[in-house]
């Protein structure tokens, strides 16, 4: 009888995608089979994470011994594809939706409080099944009887979200789960397949406890044959309603291309490609900063609970939503184009989280949206069958000459152009960095992930300093 559990290693790219997958399933492409993912431990160097793959099928269906996944193998994770649309609820639907969101938040917060209390007081951990039984008893009490007025599915999903939040926390992927606030004037409710009806022929979406379909603005059709498995209804702070349709297998694998590109992200140019192409940083936040500041000031001065305050809050929320929309739209266009045009995309594995701990740099980095860009490139590469390679951030991409390999001792951030003392070639700082990133990425794909460690090791032996600390020092140059 084959062993039912195998330990494999996921690289960081896999882990990032796994997190967006909410730790659910991994697809092993060669075998076309599904596995359950269980985090085991985090390695000391934080580059690799071990996961336990549990065979989900009946034992006689496909014996595990026919597949060999040696430890250290990198699996690719295919994230489900989701489509987001704006919708306008009818006067009958809106109160029900608002109530559903409110009940979902209440159940989430109650379940989280119970779990924390059970652990602190009795050193007991509550499972999803136990909390699901609790939910039934809550519904029977007179003070929580209103939970019966909404569909039970979003409430069950809220319990699942608490469960997942704790799993992620114990796997050291996230911090301790936080309560959902009403203060942010929004929220979401998740409906699984049994709580909605989607008709592909007429393109209508009807949620549980509703008689009429939602008035969805279908800005684009779902790919043929693709059906949603989960529907999330959300309300944002600007008062807009969106519905997100999650489809498990909506992937479109594009034909293979010979192109490979290295991408360097920055502040002056949002991205610089190894081909020499540059994409300017639109700086959306900065563009509308004056108006934002004015509204923030007005909000701070308005009397609490007054109508004017509420009006200003709504205006500010709408402005923030507008800025976020502009940024997202730009990043989507940018990332889709690069993924469509190239087979291999190489990026530097920047720790945006650490960089934003520097307050002066934080705003420009948030405004540029590096994290969102990396996330989009990651999941779009997986959808379209492209290869995304993340190279170690300690790679000296800026200081190394892409022609001869000469490494400069130092290169301040305000130096945008430099001439290599060894071979005399003149470099644009960002283009040179992008070329080095591409070269390092191609080395990783040719020699396997181990090369990453070897590059790191050879650099340590050469006494090459990491570039990261200097980034923090030279902020004024940005
Ligand atoms: Zn040179």
Q: Mind explaining what this structure looks like?
A:
- By secondary structure, the chain is of the alpha+beta class.
- The protein has three domains: 5-79, no CATH class; 83-247, no CATH class; 260-477, no CATH class.
- The chain has 13 helices and 18 strands.
- The chain has helices spanning 12-20, 93-122, 128-140, 152-170, 284-287, 289-301, 307-341, 352-355, 359-368, 370-384, 429-447, 450-462, 468-473; strands at 5-10, 25-28, 33-42, 49-54, 81-88, 187-192, 196-199, 204-207, 215-216, 230-235, 241-247, 260-265, 269-273, 278-280, 344-348, 387-391, 417-419, 426-428.
- The chain has a five-stranded antiparallel beta sheet with strand order 6-10-11-5-9. Strands 14-13-12-15-16 form a five-stranded mixed beta sheet.
- Helix 3 packs antiparallel against helix 4.
- The chain binds zinc ion.
- Zinc ion binds at residues 401, 403-404, 406, 420, 422-423, 425.
Number of domains: 3
Strand content: 15-25%
Radius of gyration: 25 Å
Assembly type:
single chain
Helix content: 25-40%
Amino- and carboxy-terminal Cα gap: 61 Å
Structural class: alpha+beta
Count of alpha/pi helices = 13
Strand order of the largest sheet: 6-10-11-5-9
Bound heterogens, unique:
zinc ion
Shape: globular
Average pLDDT works out at 77
How many strands? 18
Biggest sheet character: 5 strands, antiparallel
- Low-confidence blocks of residues: 1-77, 449-478
